[in-house]
Amino acid sequence: MIVEKHKIINFKENGDNRGKLVVVEGMKDIPFDIKRVFYIYGSDPDVVRGQHANRETEFVLINVSGSSKVRVSDGKNESVFILDKPHTGIYLPKMLWKDMYDFSSDSILLVLASEHYDGSEYIRDFDAFSKETSQHA
Ligand code: TYD
Fold first, then answer.
1. 3-135: CATH superfamily
2. Which of 26, 39, 46, 47 shows its CA 20 to 30 Å from the CA of 104?
3. Is any atom of ligand 1 closer than 6 Å to the C-beta of 12?
């Protein structure tokens, strides 16, 4: 599975009369091995989270409960996605700006990451990010 651009991924929903079960395996269902998992909940609807790009880390975001939106930008073009299904995720490659917002009160946003946490690989200034990406375009 080679993916360079952000992309919606639909996971298989294993369902029977006991309920549903979704499996996300690294290097099978998503294009990286999972080194870190975190989840975001309890954000008010007017909160904007993220607001950064990562030099090294790739992510998959899944709203396992409720809904949120994610806006991604490569420095020039932006796209908005609604995450509102526990069996649908969005893959975000490295060097992509992301904002998460419009959290529903029951939103639990699960994030799978390809790297351990390292605050120094975050770019938190959008102008610096877009300058850097335009140099590499
Ligand atoms: P932050 O990066 O601001 O979250 P988001 O981008 O989702 O809005 O992270 C919030 C706090 O949690 C900040 O103090 C850093 C810490 N943190 C970790 O220690 N490890 C992690 O893997 C993440 C994502 C955050």
1. Jelly Rolls (2.60.120.10)
2. 26
3. no
What's the pLDDT tens digit per position in 91-133?
999 999 999 999 999 999 999 999 999 999 999 999 999 999 9
Q: Where are the domains of the chain?
A: 3-135
Is residue 50 lining ligand 1, measured as CB closer than 6 Å? yes
Of 37, 38, 40, the residue with max ligand 1 atoms within 8 A of its CB, to mutate for a pocket test, comes to 38
Q: What pLDDT, in 10s, does the model give residues 13-62?
A: 999 999 999 999 999 999 999 999 999 999 999 999 999 999 999 999 99
**Residue for token pair 């979704």:** 22
